[in-house]
């Protein structure tokens, strides 16, 4: 987040920069705190509705794509991401 930026403004800006998608920000789904190279990061995840744009990877990613639950299950993910999303009810239970 930029200094003085609201969560909603940061989500809209970051998604545009990192995915090429313009979104409408919805409800807060959950929050976690994770260690990072410059201390702890407080991460807030929001439900979003895509309004426009074409999905593409940002400058710090190799790929960006929509996947099914079956394909997602085969991908390497950040530690605890799958468990956290399942706990928040955002993935189908296996």
From TrEMBL:
Q: Which cofactor does it need?
A: Mg(2+)
Write out the coiled-coil annotation as residue ranges. none
Q: Could you name the domain of life of the organism this protein comes from? A: Bacteria
Keyword annotations: Hydrolase
**Keyword Hydrolase tagged:** yes
Domain spans labelled Nudix hydrolase: 1-91
Q: Write down the Pfam families for this protein, in alphabetical order.
A: NUDIX
**Residues that span the membrane, as ranges:** none
Checking SUPFAM superfamilies in the record gives: Nudix
| Keyword Repeat tagged | no
From the Swiss-Prot or TrEMBL record, give the protein name: ADP-ribose pyrophosphatase YjhB (NUDIX family)
| Species, as recorded | Saccharothrix longispora
